[in-house]
Design brief:
alpha/beta; Trna Endonuclease, Chain: A, domain 1; 10 helices; flat
Length: 269
Amino acid sequence: MVTRVNEREKQKEDDKEKNRQNIENQRRISWQTHEDDVSSFIKDQCRIYGIEYIGPEEFPDKLKPDNSILISDRYVIFDAKSPKDSEDTSAFINGINTKVKQQVKYIKLSAVKKDIYLVVPSNLYKEIPKTQYQQGSYDVWIITLEQIPVMLAHFKETMDYNDFDGLSPEDRDALVKELGAYAFNLRRKLMIDGYFGKQFLQVLKNTKNNLSEELYNEIEQAVKNLGDSLPTKRSGKPLSLDSVDQDIKEINFMSQQIGIPTPPEKEES
């Protein structure tokens, strides 16, 4: 009896290992053409966006990255990375940190942007624990083919923006990052303010619904008295729930026009 149980357990383990090997072998087939696939894809996307593609032969240095593109006289590097014939998935992932540090050789070139992209197979991406590696003077990003079109669209937009004329490449990069951080945090603040505005408004509406009319009218009179005591009145408008509700709706509408998520409108009961 014990022998049969052990045999079944061993068979389960053997089947699991066989399945793992099958998956690994299927992955290896795609890895063999990964570098060529990445180069071909970036070339096609560069033609679509009107961006100059630079292959290893055209790169103006003895160092030869797999792929680069020219953005405002600076090179953005896309290095294709996939497991070698002797590597399995875990060995490749464990070696990512080494591959990241190796990119410092490109950063020493003044014409290279300080963000370098390692393009890995899509079927490995979810297993890689980190996708951004800050290395002091430069950043390395782990990406897949699917992310490249969005990135090229962004690069094209910055190329077409003329207000950066007169800035050095380093100052231009710093300004883009600074403005990006500013825009992100401002949108985040507006989104949070919109959320709490809706929550507080709902509390006020609940107060109106749950109190007696007499008590609620007394509270409204106290609100009016406070408004009347302010040095500068708010355009002569009463600070009513309806006016607050309308203001919040207008703010949410304007936020939505620039892509800021806003709380959904609730149906009035």
